[in-house]
Automatic annotation (TrEMBL):
<dbReference type="InterPro" id="IPR036259">
    <property type="entry name" value="MFS_trans_sf"/>
</dbReference>
<feature type="domain" description="Major facilitator superfamily (MFS) profile">
    <location>
        <begin position="1"/>
        <end position="371"/>
    </location>
</feature>
<keyword id="KW-0472">Membrane</keyword>
<feature type="transmembrane region" description="Helical">
    <location>
        <begin position="287"/>
        <end position="309"/>
    </location>
</feature>
<protein>
    <submittedName>
        <fullName>MFS transporter</fullName>
    </submittedName>
</protein>
<keyword id="KW-1003">Cell membrane</keyword>
<feature type="transmembrane region" description="Helical">
    <location>
        <begin position="120"/>
        <end position="138"/>
    </location>
</feature>
<dbReference type="Pfam" id="PF07690">
    <property type="entry name" value="MFS_1"/>
</dbReference>
<feature type="transmembrane region" description="Helical">
    <location>
        <begin position="224"/>
        <end position="246"/>
    </location>
</feature>
<keyword id="KW-1133">Transmembrane helix</keyword>
<feature type="transmembrane region" description="Helical">
    <location>
        <begin position="348"/>
        <end position="367"/>
    </location>
</feature>
<dbReference type="InterPro" id="IPR011701">
    <property type="entry name" value="MFS"/>
</dbReference>
<feature type="transmembrane region" description="Helical">
    <location>
        <begin position="198"/>
        <end position="218"/>
    </location>
</feature>
<keyword id="KW-0812">Transmembrane</keyword>
<feature type="transmembrane region" description="Helical">
    <location>
        <begin position="316"/>
        <end position="336"/>
    </location>
</feature>
<feature type="transmembrane region" description="Helical">
    <location>
        <begin position="95"/>
        <end position="113"/>
    </location>
</feature>
<dbReference type="InterPro" id="IPR050189">
    <property type="entry name" value="MFS_Efflux_Transporters"/>
</dbReference>
Length: 372
């Protein structure tokens, strides 16, 4: 499951590694190329909660496999797309497959471990996004050597391999073990009455604006400061790996008794300060250090939110809809933030620090509300 999540997230990270190359081929500016990041999130931004409800009804394993299959087919289509509109359409389909995958997986992960180990397991699952983005960013040398289509085709084939492994290794639920699904209206009422999932969704959404404010533009920022494409992609991959390290650190801290809400608040505050400085400091080495620090500290937040989710709902059947709600807010931020930051960066890189600071303030306040 973790391999599927990582390779699904690699379909996000592959875009910053090839953004300038694709932009040049199709005549897109920085803002237009940023749509390749944000449109991946379109389906989840519109229907994350609905897909979460659907996943709860068809079962998490079926949703996981359907998401991996759809993501693989869409990734292949993106690598072969002859025009910009078809490429953008393929990105929307990739996002739909990824959403099914990430809605289904947390419940499967949580159910597969002992209660004492769930914080650590969810922290490990939380690494899927930064580790996958790092893998996608590491395709930059292949983009330089063979072109973006070859790099994207390789990542699509790896995602297909992950789909095959999950089909073989993820066990099916025993016959008759699942309780009948409650009516959708009743599930929605129970989800809204719980309130805590809404707070988690807010915290995760504002974190995502911060994370993609760094992950989507760090290569372009470094290239603007004189770095080579391969080196800029490698630096961004290091920042993503630091984020994965933050997720793992949060899992270990929670296993030792640390409060998830406190970790979320600390991660948001540290990420806001360091992340905004990425666009204010003109020295490439300092930008890399700040980006790594921002992503590493910020990694405390998603792991904490994933750990809180199963405990935020009164019924295990509501975990997938709760994850869908979180992914909807998460991807709404991913849809809106990159074009906004890209537009500001197109005027002056320093302007990109403003939305980073605002998102960091919102994430910190959301983390504080989870401590109640």
């Amino acid at each position: 499951m973790l391999a599927g999540g990582i390779l699904g997230a690699a379909q996000i990270g592959k875009v910053p590694a090839a953004m300038t190359t694709i932009g040049a081929e199709f005549g897109l500016g920085l803002t237009g190329a940023a749509l390749l990041v944000s449109l991946f999130a379109l389906m989840a931004a519109i229907g994350g909660l609905g897909i979460g409800l659907a996943a709860a009804r068809i079962g998490p394993r079926r949703a996981l496999l359907a998401g991996l299959a759809l993501g693989t087919l869409a990734a292949l289509a993106a690598a072969l797309a002859p025009t910009a509109p078809l490429l953008l359409l393929a990105r929307v389909a990739e996002g739909a497959g990824f959403l099914l995958l990430v809605v289904a997986a947390p419940g499967l992960v949580s159910a597969s471990v002992a209660p004492r180990d769930r914080g650590l397991a969810m922290g490990l699952w939380g690494t899927y996004m930064p580790a996958g983005i790092a893998l996608g960013l590491l395709s930059a040398p292949l983009v330089e050597a063979q072109g973006w289509r070859a790099a994207w085709m390789a990542l699509a084939l790896l995602l297909g391999l992950a789909a095959l492994l999950c089909w073989l290794l993820v066990p099916a639920a025993p016959a008759g073990s699942a309780a009948p699904a409650a009516p959708i209206a009743a599930q929605l009422r129970a989800l809204m009455a719980a309130r805590r999932p809404l707070r988690i969704a807010t915290a995760f959404a504002t974190y995502n604006a911060l994370y993609f404010g760094i992950a989507a533009f760090l290569p372009a920022r470094l290239e603007a400061l004189g770095a080579a494409t391969g080196g800029a992609g490698a630096a961004a991959a290091l920042a993503a790996l630091a984020n994965a390290g933050g997720n793992l650190a949060a899992g270990l801290l929670m296993r030792r008794g640390a409060a998830p809400a406190g970790l979320a608040m600390a991660g948001a505050l540290g990420m806001a300060v360091c992340g905004s400085a990425v666009y204010l400091v003109p020295l490439p080495a300092a930008v890399v250090v700040l980006a790594i620090a921002a992503c590493g500290i910020g990694g405390l937040l998603p792991a904490s939110c994933f750990a809180l989710l199963p405990r935020s709902v009164p019924d295990a059947a509501l975990v997938a809809p709760a994850v869908g709600l979180v992914m909807q807010g998460n991807n709404l931020a991913q849809l809106l933030a990159p074009p906004l930051i890209g537009a500001l960066a197109g005027q002056a890189w320093a302007l990109a620090a403003l939305p980073m600071l605002l998102a960091g303030l919102a994430a910190t306040l959301a983390g504080r509300s989870l401590r109640r």
